[in-house]
Write a structure and sequence with these properties.
Layout (H helix, E strand, L loop, with lengths): L2 H29 L6 H19 L3 H29 L5 H19 L29 E4 L2 E4 H23 L1 H11 L1 H6 L4 H27 L6 H17 L4 H22 L4 H15 L8 H5 L1
Antiparallel strand pairs: 1-2
């Protein structure tokens, strides 16, 4: 298969990784916490969107916003139920990690058990099975540029991802909310003394992060066509962690660049070595780059010295 076509496919895949990993980065940058329920939100948003389309005949343009709202609501659950109580009790740093792992397992269990009439049976009835959106949900139009095939759904994924990153960059760097987020990330106590409502900023950060995870899940379900209770854990969780480390922990720009690099490395590994070792080759490449630059691609000088 043509190498250039595979690199284009890597850009498509990297767009999904970028949206997912930037959500990870937002929470880590503000709270210093790796939210491992992020992958569960990714999966649930895809499952809810699929169910509304497949079982209730909703058009994708209506089902996708519903999935995004559900993902944002899960952000409220994560912050108010799993993170804030621990933060107020000054729990050990590992406590939020364990708490969010537990939430992720709960999300997966809810979907697994839905075949028997569980809480999510309204939108998910396939248990642990892997499904795809019904035919015709997304137009199957393909544009051809020379020898390159550009499926419309994947082009839309890249466009949505780039627009989202641009909007996020403006919010973080040019708005009062973004300045408050940076202040909380730098020093929560000092931010509080300056009159910033730290809890509110953290809440909105987790909600925005979860909405991004939900968007990534919906894009994955639409373009890859593989939705199951395990797509978060098996397909993006470790890749998201690798991306934020490679890009430079806490760097949004680094996460975006690293996500696209990972996507292209994976598809080239698929071309050269086959599907079974794709992930292994990709992570070997990441490991090699981190040996050369331990702080990641966009580490601060202080991080590099540390």
């Amino acid at each position: 298969m043509d190498v250039v076509q595979q690199l284009v496919n890597g850009v498509f895949l990297g767009s999904i990784y970028a949206v997912f990993a930037v959500g990870y980065t937002l929470v880590f940058g503000v709270l210093g916490v790796v939210n491992l329920a992020h992958s569960g939100v990714f999966m649930l948003a895809a499952a809810i969107t699929y169910g509304l389309v497949a079982f209730h005949g909703a058009p994708l343009w209506l089902a996708a916003p519903a999935g995004l709202l559900a993902a944002a609501g899960l952000g409220l659950v994560i912050e108010l139920g799993a993170l804030r109580p621990l933060r107020r009790r000054q729990a050990p740093e590992i406590a939020p990690l364990i708490s969010t792992i537990g939430l992720s397992l709960v999300f997966v269990a809810l979907v697994e058990q839905s075949r028997g009439g569980g809480w999510l049976s309204f939108v998910w009835r396939d248990g642990a099975n892997s499904v795809r959106f019904p035919a015709g949900t997304v137009p199957d139009r393909v544009w051809h540029v020379g020898r390159l095939a550009m499926p419309a759904d994947k082009v839309a994924t890249v466009v949505i991802s780039v627009l989202l990153m641009a909007v996020l960059g403006v919010v973080v760097n040019r708005t009062q909310v973004g300045r408050a987020m940076r202040a909380v990330a730098e020093n929560p106590r000092a931010a509080c003394l300056l009159g910033i409502d730290v809890d509110r900023i953290v809440l909105w950060t987790v909600v925005a992060s979860s909405a991004m995870a939900g968007l990534a899940g919906i894009l994955y379900g639409v373009t890859i066509g593989d939705i199951s209770p395990y797509i978060g854990r098996d397909q993006v969780e470790l890749r998201g962690l690798a991306v934020i480390v490679l890009g430079g922990v806490g760097s949004i720009r680094g996460s975006i660049v690293a996500a696209y690099l990972l996507g292209m490395v994976e598809v080239l590994a698929l071309l050269g070595f086959g599907a079974n070792v794709r992930a292994a080759v990709a992570f070997a490449a990441l490991f090699g780059m981190l040996v050369v630059r331990p702080g990641g691609l966009f580490a601060s000088p202080a991080a590099e010295r540390a």
